[in-house]
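B., you asked whether I could sanity-check this one before it goes into the benchmark set. Here's the sequence:
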Amino acid sequence: MAKAEIGQLVKIRRGRGQEQYAVIIGVEDARFVWIADGDKRKFDQPKKKNMLHLELLDEVSREVQDSMSETGRVTNGKLRFALHSYRNRVEQQREAHERGE
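And here's what the prediction gave me:
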């Protein structure tokens, strides 16, 4: 199993938020992490999630990491921005692939 880190983006595989994306804002132990998306799940009300129910993505938000290490907090806007940027990048790559680029 891959090691989770703060600021890493994840895709939720099980539960009510299935197929949605979130950012890891805390690592409890090797099995559980705390996630938030800045929209439905705010920083102040993170969700404790079993690692088996998440797909760890190769994307890590440096803005979220820096903010968490400096202040111990991150704004909901930064969480939304990190997820929005990732989704836009994936969508552009998918469209380029369909065009044969």
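One thing to flag: The mean pLDDT is 94. Otherwise nothing jumped out at me.
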